[in-house]
Amino acid sequence: MSRHSAAAPDRASTLSFWLLIAFLAILWIAGGASRADVLGQSVVRFSAWTIIVVAILALPRVDWRAVKEPAIILGAAALLVALQLVPLPPAIWTELPGRAIFMEAAVLTGTEQPWRPLSISPGGTTNALASLIVPATVLLLAANLTREQHWRIATFVLGLVGAGAVLGVLQFSGANFDNPLINTISGAVAGNFANRNHFAVFLAIGCVLALAWAFRDHAVLWKVGAAFGLLVIFILLILATGSRSGVIIGLAGVAMTFLAFRRRAVQQFKTIPRKIAVPIIIGWIVIVIGAILLSVGLDRAVSVDRATMLDGKTDLRLEIWPIVLDMIQRYFPAGTGFGTLDPVFRIGEPDGLLNPQYINQAHNDWLQIFLDGGVLALVLLVVALIWFVLRSFRIWISDGGSTGAHVLGKAGSILFALILAASLTDYPARTPLVMALLTLASIWLMSAKSVRGFRERICKI
Predict the structure, then answer these.
(1) Do 50 and 158 belong together in one domain?
(2) Which end of the chain is more exposed for a tag (fewer CB within 10 A), N or C?
(3) Do 96 and 201 have their domain in common?
(4) Range of the domain at 111
């Protein structure tokens, strides 16, 4: 984090903090959908640009050093997307793979081949470029925050997850909410998201933040109890969403967080008399297992029901992915352009998949990034993954475990990993809210304490 991360907040950090709070609240309301045509996208982007203008006019400084590495990666991504919109001369464009079908249009009309951008659908790529205003806004505001303010932001995000859980419980009880800002599905338990898988990832993020909040610094018993209570609620709600991948992501998040903070948990329970601590642990385990079994027994665990019915014929993803792999080869190495999967998929869509529903995402962002951006996107993705692994390795082996920044850094590492894992079967990071949380996770990984602890340990070796 920045040099002023441990200092008292000044005007820049205070204004940045409240602007980021406001922006996250707006994202909770309007940032739960990924489609370009929903009203929420206009609300989110207008808000982002407004906040950026206010920040530029009112902030006395921006400490870009605190977010340098994520900012470089985001800048490279924006540059890659922007380059796909640059018109190319016909001599170059016609040599790009997979463009023969578009060349025939000019031939049939008897006109010369026009200058065209690399992107097959410039409108989709323009939308992809515009969506990056969300992480840019988060980076701008988070750069000025103190360490304590970062923790307050993390606690606020936990509160947003709790608010989403309340909305999910109401939906589960039969209440229908038609959010005009996102493309809600009637009857779905999706909280403030349009997709139940994305909502399950949001709840999994809440599980991680709840435990990090409970075991920050010197754990307080009531906070530990509250965190465990939230875990039960979040896990049960993940089961109710019907998201099979969400169950795996949620349980993995809980396991990784317990692994990260196991020493703090042990220290906390050592302060409690054994005759009280042991019943508490056993009681919590019984409550969790009993609640899950009761949920399954009462047919409330939709995720479990869907998992037992899973087979190759019912999961559309298993039919989409081979087609996407074939498209990657067809358009390699240039790619099709970001945000172009919808029209591109229709070009090569087999007759067997034709139905009233259309495929607008590959439901595997790893494959879709490769398809959209080609080899350059793959290189950038590998660089970002290497950065994430190195940063996570430093913070997990460092000896700065007694600091709150170290706890938040580990939580950021886990959140980053969960979103990456969820992207194997879906596209959560394409929603503005999860995109902002992914950006925050990368910033929390930039803990200065983790770097110093890592260097000290390496020197000892």
Answers:
(1) yes
(2) C
(3) no
(4) 87-118
Q: Would you list the DSSP string of 132-201?
A: THHHHHHHHHHTT--HHHHHHHHHHHHHHHHHHHHHHHHHHTT-----TTTT--TT---TTSSSHHHHHH
Cα 400 from chain centre: 26
Query: Which long-range contacts does 451-458 make (Cβ < 8 Å, 24+ apart)?
Result: 451/394, 451/398, 452/398, 452/400, 453/394, 453/398, 453/399, 453/400, 453/406, 454/393, 454/394, 454/395, 454/397, 454/398, 456/398, 456/399, 457/397, 457/398, 457/399
Asked if 74 and 199 sit in the same domain, the reply is yes
Give buried/exposed letters for 323-345 (b at 16+ CB in 10 A, else e): bbeebbeebeebbbbbbbbeebb
Rounded percentage of the chain residues whose pLDDT exceeds 90: 44
- How confident is the prediction for the chain on average, in pLDDT? 83
Question: What are the pLDDT digits (tens) for 394-418?
Answer: 888 875 544 667 889 999 999 999 9
Torsion of CA 260, 152, 392, 136, to 10 degrees: 150
Q: Supply the pTM of this predicted model.
A: 0.86
Predicted confidence (pLDDT) at residue 460 exceeds the cutoff of 50: no
Instruction: Please state the domain count of the chain.
Output: 2
